[in-house]
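# step 3/5: fold
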Amino acid sequence: MIATQEYDVLIAGAGPAGAHTALRLARLGWRVALVDAQTFPRKKPCGEFLSPACLPFLEELDLLSDVLAAGAAEVDGMHLVTSRSRASGRFTPMGRYTSSHGHGLGIRREVLDTLAVERAACDPNIRVMMGWRVRGVLQDDTGRARGLTVVDPDGHQATLHGRFVVGADGPRSRVARGAGLALPRTGPARFALVARFRDVAERQRAHVHFLGRDYVAACPIDDGLFTANLVVDADQLPKGAHALEAFLREHLRRDDSLGQLLADAPLAEPIASCGPLGTRTRRPFGPGVALVGDACGFVDPLTGEGMFFAMRGASLLAPAIDECLRDPRREAQALGRYARARRFEFGPRYAMARLLQRGLRRPGIPERVIGALDRAPGLCDLVLGLTGDYVPPSGLASPGVWRSAFGAGARART
């Protein structure tokens, strides 16, 4: 066992939640170790959509210009489609709520993540440790997290000591399990098949196509590619990787417009999969440890809010950790405020995601809802404002929001 130097903060997981937390803490002057089992760039199955509310977080960390320079596709709205109805919405101002740029972005995860990790590697306060696998949480006799047990790229076990530990290591977080914060998964197991296509004409809109209990979420991304995620129950998946493409294309052809868009488009690379979707935790913190991103628990948001949850979570957690480190006596209060802020920010969004998931399982519900949105295009814009994260759920109490959705100036169908 090799002992290594002590840091102020150890962060397990270098995706957007972990890397953004590291960059924010480094700006506050803390010494951070950013640890990930993978080396970057690395592929990660993902919807690859950044909602409009993600762009200000990228700006705050001086990453937006890099993301745009990498060729991220601008996504100005979304089509919501069933076999019998179709609604289209735009990321447009709703009352006093507006997205800063008027669009979201589509970009490959390996590009997005690598840009943040490279920025972290240039920061003198951050040590980037790629290829280091977290084995568990090091705790003292009181149960307080004091570090991480890891395996270095050469296979040697080591200990990393830190004043604070962050779990940003995804829905099957070793930090959450090691700190006793994880709960058993409940509900049906769902998996996503992720495919990237070439030669797809759509370059401006994201898509969500409802196929009975299943759905496809898709959007244009950088390098001229188009990404699509098919989400199905685990027991539907065929055996063997060779059968995945036929399974995916059969589902694409179940919807006429989706079939026209993608069914015959060439795959850019082999299909990837991820799942099961859906994990839970007791709470997002413990003594000396906090969780951020999917490590806090994962609910498939359906309309592509995962990156917002990660980036906004990092912006909430970093100041809480800063307070903990500056005055350890206030740790419980600071982390309690972090947990309450998460509930206020994400609780209604998680509830809406669960409601959408339940609605998918009831025959006829998606058709009726999307039919109603088609008849009221301004209301569809409001739905996109909510799922695009720039209209908070509390905004539904604002008369100005409803005037935008139903007023005389409500737009015509597009």
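# step 4/5: annotate
The longest strand covers residues 2-12.
# step 5/5: archive (pending)
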